[in-house]
Amino acid sequence: MSPGDLMLTEIALIFGGLVLLWRYGLRKEARETPPRLTTWPASGTDFFVFVWLVIAGGFLAPMAASHWIKQAALGREYELILSTAIFQFGMLAGVMAFALTLGRRSRPAKPAPFPTNPILAGGAVFLISVPVVSVVSLLWLGLLKLCHIDAPQQEAIDLLRNARSSLPFAILLFSAIVIAPINEELLFRAGIFRFVRSHLPRWAALLLPAVIFGLMHMNVASFAPLVALGIIFSLAYERTGRISTTMVAHALFNLMATLLVMAGVDL
Fold this sequence. Notes:
It is a single chain. By secondary structure, this protein is mainly α. It has 2 domains: about 1-30 and about 115-265, no CATH class; about 40-105, no CATH class. The protein contains 10 helices and no strands. It has helices at about 5-25, 30, 45-70, 75-100, 120-145, 155-160, 165-195, 200-215, 225-240, 245-260. The chain starts with a helix and ends in a 5-residue tail after the last helix.
């Protein structure tokens, strides 16, 4: 895809996102739409066990597999990619462990059915996120430049660009577009946001998981854009009551970022 095609595509996405942002976010009727998300009746102990299991799963899985990875002598690129994928699978294992044990006694009530297909709703949320994240990214990078703060790229971007064979690239792509959106939405939106929303003011519930979401990626350049993205996803989850909506939006956002990286665009 040529630079001109990329620019036209980005303009189309931004324009479509602005239209949807006005229709579903800024209009009076949209702002007065009651949220469909119900509360999560988990105790504080169960909530912290949930977070601990997810985080522990993410860090323990690569540690457990590190010996095998080094013994296989696959090379530095392969080791980093496998460690990233295993981290994501470890987080998912933590979610499943909680769901099969303590999660049984604190299942939240099901919300009223959302009238729109979660794939269509997720696509709309993705489009809404494009202009918002683009503006926040420009402002944030400008602020970093004014403060003379270096903003290196995320390690995952370098891995995508430098993957020399199809298998490592496929593993990284599957992890970024499928596993990461599932894990991170279950942790940050279905877990942290849903629980904190019942115990703190709404603004704090929206901000706290978004800030943690941004910090988790450990990259100063992407911090503010990811905070904005996290807030958008929490608002969408609150409005629809369906975590599948934000999973789809998250997957589409990661797919867009991957395509831009493959096209040589600096993120």
